[in-house]
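Annex B, item 7. Sequence and structure tokens for protein A, then protein B.
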Amino acid sequence: MTRDEAIELLKSGPKGVEHWNSWKEESTVEDQPDLSNVSFIACNLDGVDFRRAKLTNCRFARTSMKKAVFFGADLRNANLSSVDLHGAEFAECDCRRASFSRSELVGAIFTYSDLRKTQFDSADMTACVFSRVDMTGARLSNAILDSTSFYEVNLADANVTGVLFYKTASFCRINAATCFGHPLFKRYAEDQDYIASRIDEIKIERFLNSKNLSRLRQDIASNSAESPIKLRGKLSDQLRLRYWEPLRLGAHEVWLWLWARIDYGRSFSRVALMAAVLSIVFGVAYSTGDMLHFDEGVTPNWWYTPFYYSIVTYTTLGFGDVTPKSEWGQVLVTIEVILGYLTLGLLISILANKVARRS
């Protein structure tokens, strides 16, 4: 197929795209015409197969390219502004200096692609996936990042001014140290990267422990005649990998789960709500267990007294007008005081972090 025939076919609409895709399946890379510098403005190219296509300096403005496939395509300096790219796939593409400004990239996938100095200004990147791509010097000004995923992405020197990001966006193994224009985005991205790395660390440790345990069992079975000292050491390692390590990693997972409940130490309201709930729970325990002693001449005997005592204990004020009168009452008071100190420390830390001036 000649270059002119390919251009005419692609511009003819859905039937032409279907014909092009059929021809692509039967042709080799060498047979493909060079489509560089072609204008496809306002065309319908939904589902087009542009695998290994040469599309440098092409103009696709206001074109519909839903579910288009760009595997290995050369899109350097291409203009894809205001293009509908819902569900499009960009794998191993060279998109250097290409423009996706104001484009609909909902559900699009970029993997192993070169996106250096690519423009995504005001693009809708909802549910978009960026995996193992280089976005050095890219422009994401005013882009929408809702449920967007960044995995092993280099955002060095990227311009993120005015980017609209949601907490549904995920970041793992990224380089955002030198991106600029939106300090809150940069901080959130690096926070999420740290959290994701902690979660990955547990998964990796579980995998390595499983492999080491299997290898150790085989070693013990094949070297049963070893000296008692060496054998005892291997049996000790086996017990550690089989029982202690799963418990340790399980406790780490529980800690991460609890940490997530307070938005990883960033939510003042969640910690305050947790404190209120715990105060009520302890108040109910005091009232149902008949655990308190108080002077009726000083402290009124009504339904609120156990909750009053719980709040005073939780905040570690401890006025002394109400005291525990049973062993379990003392245990509960001790637990509540410890939880109160921890919560107070959390609240102070979060408040200081929110109020403190940052560069």
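Protein B:
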Amino acid sequence: MILDTFNVPQAHRQSPPGKIDCFGMTDRGLVREMNEDQFMVADLRKSLHVHHTSLPAADPAYLTGGTHGQLLLVADGLGGHASGERASTLAVDCLARFAVNAMHWCARLDDCDDEQVFAEWQQALRQCDEQVHAEGESRPERRGMGTTLTLAYVAWPNAYVMHAGDSRCYLLRGGQLQQVTTDHTLAQKFVEAGMIPAEQASRSRFSHVLWNAIGGSSDSVKGEAHKLELALGDVLLLCTDGLTKELDDRRITEILSGREPAADICRRLVAEANEAGGGDNCTVVVAKFIAGSDGNGQANGTSLTDTVELPK
């Protein structure tokens, strides 16, 4: 596992109570025949499903525990001919099932053991990798299929990021956009080795050749891990490369800095990516950590939104 604690200015640990406004959406773009991207925005919470009881009918809220965190993720399928779509679907489904059935949730800040959290998410990535490889081996038409996967598990005030591929996680803080994750491409490897300057990476013919992904030609996935300490006013963006191939960091910063709800910000990002060419599927997930009641996004179609109270 590649482990790093991302170096950002320290947030105030005793942040006042606030809200998280989350929204996600995906779009086929203007060129591709199908959409091989997937995303998820979800609350993690305990619930009690009562089959029979002598008690009077209870308020459903009584049977549902408080939120234990949020799970945000994007995946960009690789392989074409519907194989990429299948790979990204398998990965997202596998992650969701792992979060519900196998993962230790952080009920309080002091419950979170960083090494345990990352070890569990690494295990989840390995399970996804094994599942995608297994189906690729059993279905010749899907051999070699794979997917990127970038997720953020938010247990306020921390965000645990796990990543494989060239989708990205960004943090906007104080008007400054910082790329949290590293692109797992050969072009980025060449930059790190000093073989090409960083500004040439996006133009390299190796800019989309992945050395690390779920499934695909890699032997086993290597999760890149980061821990962020969040503060009210921060914005997280998870996105596939259909966004970053069309919009530069300056424009992404301008859009994320707006006061609109997360839903409107997502729609602007996707719309401008299409206006700039729409050469690939584009998927975005935005989470705004706000002090007031600014978040009022509406869910529709392939979009999902939720505004929830953060624990004090």
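Comment on protein B: The first strand starts at residue 2 and ends at 4.
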